[in-house]
Design a protein that fits this description.
The structure is a single chain. Helix 1 runs antiparallel to helix 2, helix 2 runs antiparallel to helix 3 and helix 5 runs parallel beside helix 7. The chain is an alpha/beta fold and 375 residues long. The chain folds into two domains: 176 residues, Tetratricopeptide repeat domain (Serine Threonine Protein Phosphatase 5, Tetratricopeptide repeat, Alpha Horseshoe), CATH 1.25.40.10; 193 residues, Vaccinia Virus protein VP39 (Rossmann fold), CATH 3.40.50.150. It is built from 17 helices and nine strands. Strand 2, helix 14 and strand 3 form a beta-alpha-beta unit. The termini are far apart. The protein is 54% helix and 17% strand. The radius of gyration is 24 Å and the shape is globular. The structure holds S-adenosylmethionine. S-adenosylmethionine binds next to helix 10, helix 12 and helix 13.
């Protein structure tokens, strides 16, 4: 039987938990932290309060305090992989790179290779390789690949860091996993990075097709539908078709209610099986997941009507003289001359390109360009 004091404690704990969770859900972390603290004063082992307090500190960018609570949770509840994933991100911010890699690896192991924890490890490997150099992370890449040889994420990491020269295309399972996870925050994040590829594509399409209506436009790697939305805004009569490998990106695109049809498929497979001929095919920041462009460009050519138009953006390789080059972020950069040569080879007649800044990466500009090619 609970005595009056215990009953009162329980009542207050439940009440404060509701109040704290309400503040948490509207991102008022300062107030939420205050109420979780009150709960822990009465019951310092309260699981919900410890979990939410740790993440509230994390989301409030107070990594020192978040670390204390996540380390406590990790000891108290060692089979939950999320504590290690959060800790890996905190250690990385604190520049404890070896600890960050080990924590990311632990979360992969504890979760038996769950996709979200593999993606967290892949991002840690890329970001730490940028700072500390590739040699620093190679042993972890090897361990990841040896333990999960069938995982697309592990395969992509292995290829990026061990065999960038021999890699011709990104692993489609890797792309599907990262974009499934990224989908809900994709547009907010990209807007913060001044991403303007969809606007540019819509602008050039309108310039080339200003007097044509009811165009059938295929949006390759349509993602959340940013490109489609920009096209519809300028040319409302357009009929849009979208294809993407990530179901979660397609959920976001579907919510815009602008596509005539959305299909979950790999671009190459889709282009091979599609029977339809399009007026226009667009690919906004998508060919960066392809190194060799011959096959995808030839298939695009085959799916366009006579005088059909292919408009796409690329990131420019100004790191070396190679036609295409796989960067540490598992994205390809291309030389303009290579792209142009490939377009000509498959039969595109009129080809123009314009150098542009596609978006930011950290504080740096991502240099690239837009291509407009007519069949
Ligand atoms: C950087 S996002 C760009 C999304 C959209 N085009 C935009 O500009 O907002 C790249 C998209 O291409 C998709 N993608 C990349 N490679 C693909 C492939 N081989 N097959 C299908 N979709 C692919 C990804 O899933 C992702 O949604």
């Amino acid at each position: 039987m609970l005595n009056i004091k215990q009953k009162f404690h329980n009542f207050m704990i439940n009440h404060w938990l509701k109040v704290a969770n309400n503040f948490y859900s509207v991102h008022n972390y300062d107030r939420a932290i205050k109420f979780y603290g009150k709960i822990l004063y009465l019951d310092n082992k309260n699981y919900a309060a410890n979990c939410n307090l740790a993440t509230a500190y994390f989301l409030n960018n107070d990594y020192q305090k978040a670390q204390t609570y996540f380390e406590y949770l990790q000891k108290a509840d060692s089979q939950n992989p999320w504590w290690q994933t959060y800790l890996s991100q905190i250690y990385q911010k604190q520049k404890s790179y070896r600890k960050a890699l080990n924590a990311a690896w632990s979360s992969v192991k504890i979760s038996h290779g769950a996709g979200e924890h593999q993606v967290n490890l892949a991002y840690a490997l890329y970001e730490i390789a940028e700072i500390k150099g590739v040699d620093f992370i190679l042993d972890m890449v090897q361990k990841f690949y040896q333990n999960y040889p069938d995982s697309g994420v592990a395969q992509q990491c292995y290829n990026t860091f061990f065999h960038p020269q021999k890699t011709a295309i990104c692993n489609s399972e890797y792309i599907e996993k990262i974009f499934d996870i990224f989908a809900p925050e994709f547009e907010t994040t990209l807007n913060r990075l001044h991403y303007n590829s969809p606007q540019m594509i819509a602008h050039y399409l309108a310039a080339v097709c200003h007097n044509r209506s009811n165009l059938q436009v295929l949006d390759l790697g349509c993602g959340t539908g940013m490109c489609g939305a920009n096209i519809k805004q300028i040319m409302p009569q357009t009929v849009l078709w979208g294809v993407d490998i990530s179901s979660q990106m397609l959920v976001e695109a579907g919510a815009k209610k602008i596509y005539n049809q959305l299909v979950k498929n790999d671009i190459i497979s889709y282009l091979k099986i599609s029977k339809f001929q399009f007026d226009v095919i667009v690919a906004s920041d998508v060919l960066t997941y392809f190194g060799v462009l011959d096959e995808v460009i030839a298939l695009v050519f085959s799916r366009l009507k006579k005088n059909g138009i292919f408009i796409f953006t690329i990131s420019q390789n100004n790191l070396n003289r190679q036609s295409y080059f796989l960067t540490l972020s598992s994205r390809f950069v291309h030389r303009f001359s290579y792209v142009e040569k490939t377009l000509k080879k498959v039969g595109f007649s009129h080809i123009e390109n314009h150098k542009k800044i596609i978006r930011k990466e950290g504080k740096k500009d991502v240099n690239g360009g837009i291509f407009v090619a007519v069949k």
